[in-house]
Amino acid sequence: MGRTAVSAEDIKLKLVETEEPDENDYRLQEQVGFILRKAHQRHVSIFAAHIADLTPPQFAALAKLHDVGETSQNQLGSLIAMDAATVKGVIDRLKARGLVELSKHEVDKRRLLVNLTAEGRDAIERLIPIAREITEETLAPLSAKEAAIFMKLLAKLA
Amino acid sequence: MGRTAVSAEDIKLKLVETEEPDENDYRLQEQVGFILRKAHQRHVSIFAAHIADLTPPQFAALAKLHDVGETSQNQLGSLIAMDAATVKGVIDRLKARGLVELSKHEVDKRRLLVNLTAEGRDAIERLIPIAREITEETLAPLSAKEAAIFMKLLAKLA
DNA sequence: TTGATATCATTTGCATACGAATGAATTTGA
DNA sequence: TCAAATTCATTCGTATGCAAATGATATCAA
Q1: Parts of chain B with a pLDDT under 50
Q2: CA–CA separation, B28 and B32 (whole Å)
Q3: Mapping DSSP to helix (H, G, I), strand (E, B) and coil, where does residue A140 land?
Q4: B26–A63 CB contact, under 8 Å
Q5: Within a 10 A sphere around the Cβ of A129, how many other Cβ atoms?
Q6: From the Cβ of A57, is strand D under 7 Å away?
Q7: Positions in chain C where some atom is under 7 Å from a protein CB
């Protein structure tokens, strides 16, 4: 008698429970987005410890300009993954510090050309070796093989 | 004769070149920090497409409160990797929207306790399934096996 | 050619993110 | 016990980051 004493309500409850074990075990700490944010924070912190007077976006702008030479503000932004509003602020601050200079495009009057100053060129050339150390330190928790795999997968995600 | 015609200058030049092929081949696009930033940007964009009325940090705060219940503002911050100044802004905005309520700690008068409101609880429980989809879509460029490896390595980095 | 579109840059508003300084309350240690 | 150190929260200043609106200039298409 007792062994078969399972009501319809019991069964329904069981089903509901196994159908959605969802809300109970959502672990924020294991979600990509959350960990990506933390990993990025850690990198920024390592960067700041090595290069105190420049932010990563500012460094990116200088490094890219060093790479490609004169470009328009918007184009530079697309090269370093910054929208127009953001890149403007970054360039303004670099200009205020004399690392970059602006000029108007002769033909297309909408464009604002950006270029490194001599000081900006010196700065970026001096900083690139340090940037290599920053990359290295950021990846330090991984073995060489792990780092290679990680970079490949990260590039797929980005 | 011709085969051994290598001057001291030639050798020095060769050495210099192999000692620092550095500044010439620094590729911003291949640095961890740069790609991490882009991957994070992509995730935030995916998040916004699924959950328009909440930011990832706001979601994190609600999810963590749902997980651990009432906590102090600072403690919540450390649980979701936000410093005191940042967490205050996030909590202020959640409070203004009625998703969270604040109260003073009876014993330790320095602490400000944060708790979900009924509305906040409803919201986070409704959003968690969507957050799973966001995680899934963020990892979509990777196979299941790649995603598992990536998450393991990313966790090591963060 | 000219009217519709598109592009480049700027501005505004909002939301992280964090260092540094400050004040209040608590804990520690001599 | 009481002064020093620590912790919690707030505020200020600076720097991304992005959506949306705007104005100027270019390009395209009918």
Answers
A1: 1-4, 7-15, 19-20, 22-23
A2: 9
A3: coil
A4: yes
A5: 12
A6: yes
A7: 7-13, 15-21, 23-27
Band (pLDDT 50/70/90 cuts) for residue A2 is very low
Structure-derived torsion over alpha carbons of residues B29, A41, A43, A130, reported in degrees to the nearest 10: 90
Q: Which nucleotides of D are covered by protein (CB under 7 A)?
A: 7-13, 15-21, 23-27
What is the four-CA torsion angle of A41, A47, A50, A54, rounded to 10 degrees? -120
A134-143 pLDDT, tens per residue? 999 999 999 9
Scan for tokens 């963590």, then name that residue: B64
Question: Which chain A residue is nearest to residue B153, measuring alpha carbons?
Answer: A150
Q: Say whether B125 and A23 touch across the interface (CB within 8 A).
A: yes
Gap between the Cα atoms of B60 and B141, Å rounded:
24
In this predicted model, what pLDDT tens digit does every residue of B67-97 receive, in sequence order?
999 999 999 999 999 999 999 999 999 999 9
Q: Considering the entire predicted model, what is its pTM?
A: 0.86
A101 within 8 A of A95, measured Cβ to Cβ = yes
Q: Find the Å distance, CA of residue A108 to C1' of nucleotide D27.
A: 12
